[in-house]
Design brief:
2 copies of one chain form a homodimer.
Chain A (H helix, E strand, L loop, with lengths): L3 H8 L3 H8 L7 H14 L5 H8 L4 E6 L6 H15 L3 E6 L4 H12 L5 E4 L6 H10 L1 E5 L10 E4 L1 H14 L5 E6 L4 H16 L9 E4 L4 H12 L7 E4 L2 H13 L9 E6 L12 E4 L2 H16 L7 E3 L2 E3 L7
Parallel strand pairs in A: 1-2, 1-3, 3-4, 4-5, 5-11, 6-7, 6-8, 8-9, 9-10
Antiparallel strand pairs in A: 10-12
Helix pairs in contact in A: 1-2, 1-3, 5-12, 8-9, 10-11
Chain A binds a DNA duplex (16 and 16 nucleotides) through helix 2 and helix 4.
DNA sequence: ATGAAAGCGCTAACAG
DNA sequence: CTGTTAGCGCTTTCAT
């Protein structure tokens, strides 16, 4: 494994010249450049990023923290991040945290110890204090899920308004008895979506029934099934369900099906996220579309600005209600 | 951001002593150690891995290449890799390649340029020549999917035998007309699973019908639906389908359901991988279980040995046929 | 257009 | 037990 010195020797030039060729500086004569390139090829030389990074004190590596890779919601966001990152000559690396603060800290450490230039976190279960402290000295952006009080810039949608619109849609097509299948309220988005749900009910003179609000520990398919079972057992059964994730909603769909009921005739269902799969269910799922690709784009841009030391403002992106079969009569 | 020199100065010792404390060497007196630790805390010092890695010429970073994070099949393997990696003081980073050789090359470059110590690839669509060349100078292990001819160590299961057993099971419960829903035969596992399928038919005197073999470009849900549509349109309709991935099989399940047919009474279905979801379908899916966690463990162990410069042998792990509702009468 | 040399932050061999 | 020092591989300033 050759190093820059050996290349210089082989080409009969100084290491400075090799470095210039490596970095595409045009202050090198064509002839010299050729010689250097030949030497590089001959020695099968690969410049070590460790040397370069130590010297320039940057790694051009971006870390993306996600709770789990098994939720398709993150797919498109990651693509969005990647798009911008690559165009700016950064590489991205995925870090699965399982919402485990210890694991998270491993990746934080990579930033603290200069192996990565910044972090985009999509993990809502983060250790807030640690994250906050990290952000004091390093580049951190929150994407989709966030903690307001940390002062860390975030990109997200208006969760309260999105939820409000979803529920309002159900009311407009005639529903009064609407269940909310929510995530644990330790998450900000869960609290916000509950607020939107309440506002829609209030505005339409519908009294809130606490037994219509079900919390799930997790946003997965199985949780949706489980929660739907509970809802179906209510004495005064709701005629509509708003689930705060598509996976939850799909679980609900299955459970309703098993119970021999029909969607949307017996029970209407609305999801959240517009994952690809939400269009492949039977019936297809009405859902809130988050601009995931754009969210990724924006998050990456914000992070790179932050790395450059610029001031960064949080951004709220638009969302959209996508009406499909699960709420059509 | 303090460096080791400033810590040394603050503590009134040499950088060597600070380094010793950092690396937990017990050749430092308790008193000195205390002083150093205080200085570290006071200056909020974080040792730079760039310096250390340059010096030790290792990064203790392992790269895991996966085609896409959206296939749950990889989840458990990754957990297995992580388990071993962490125990040996390595960190793992996920790299999504989208089976795109260019993207792949970005991550290969990270290894070539010393930012990572090795790679476990689960990407079957790899550029074979590039991979082979990479493995000549760097630590590379193939996991699950592999190319025999590269000479790169791999851990996998006996795909031919697994397929043979799946098809034999279908024959044993009375099926003669068995379709194979296969991946593109550019993949070794697809060729091997086809061989197993053929062997089972031959051994039981069943003539192979070419129209019973459907190739899909991809292992996803939608491909399964699409392929099943084709199969249902065959004039002499099969009574059983062996799909080489659970996602394909689940797509098939849905399509059969849409056609108003019943699984397993009208058509039996066998999948492959035993992803979590395969137990949540209706009916639950008979499938081949790969020892995914173990596969991850083994892959990580092999890679770390390889990094240490040891010789590494390829390994074939056991698999298991899990019989569930989709083939029960 | 090119080279000499300093230095990024760290570890480890050697000396004491 | 601790300090001095060389050097990992690179970039970049300053000369020439």
């Amino acid at each position: 494994m050759a190093n820059i010195q050996q290349v210089a020797k082989q080409a009969g030039v100084s290491v400075a010249t090799v470095s210039r060729v490596l970095n595409g500086q045009n202050t090198v004569s064509a002839k010299t450049k050729m010689r250097v390139e030949e030497a590089i090829k001959k020695l099968n030389y690969e410049p070590s990023l460790l040397g370069r990074n130590l010297r320039t004190s940057e790694s051009r590596l971006l870390l993306i923290l996600i709770p789990t890779i098994s939720n398709p919601f993150y797919l498109e966001i990651i693509k969005g991040i990647e798009q911008v990152a690559i165009s700016q000559n950064y590489n991205i690396l995925l870090c699965e945290t399982d919402s485990n603060p210890q694991k998270e800290n491993i990746y934080f450490d990579l930033v603290r110890k200069k192996m990565a230039d910044g972090i985009i976190t999509m993990d809502p279960a983060v250790n807030v204090e640690t994250l906050k402290k990290l952000a004091e000295n390093y580049a951190v952006i929150q994407c989709s899920e966030y903690e307001e009080c940390t002062g860390i810039p975030y990109v997200t949608i208006d969760n309260e308004e999105a939820s409000y619109r979803a529920v309002k849609h159900l009311i407009q097509i005639g529903h009064h008895k609407i269940a909310l299948m929510n995530a644990d309220e330790k998450y900000l988005f869960a609290r916000l979506r509950k607020m939107g749900y309440k506002r829609a009910l209030e505005e339409n003179g519908i009294t809130l029934k606490n037994e219509y609000i079900i919390s799930t520990s997790n946003l997965g398919f199985e949780n949706g099934q489980y929660a739907m079972k509970k809802i179906l057992n209510l004495q005064d059964r709701p005629t509509a369900v708003f689930a705060v994730s598509d996976l939850l909603a799909i679980g609900a769909l299955k459970e309703i099906n098993i119970a021999g009921l029909h969607v949307p005739n017996d029970i209407a269902v609305v999801g959240f996220d517009k994952i690809d799969f939400s269009n492949m269910t039977n019936p297809t799922l009405t859902t809130i579309a988050q601009p995931m690709r754009k969210m990724g784009n924006v998050a990456a841009r914000m992070l790179i600005e932050k790395i450059k030391g610029e001031e960064v403002e949080s951004i709220i992106l638009d969302h959209e209600l996508v009406i499909r079969e699960s709420t059509s009569r």
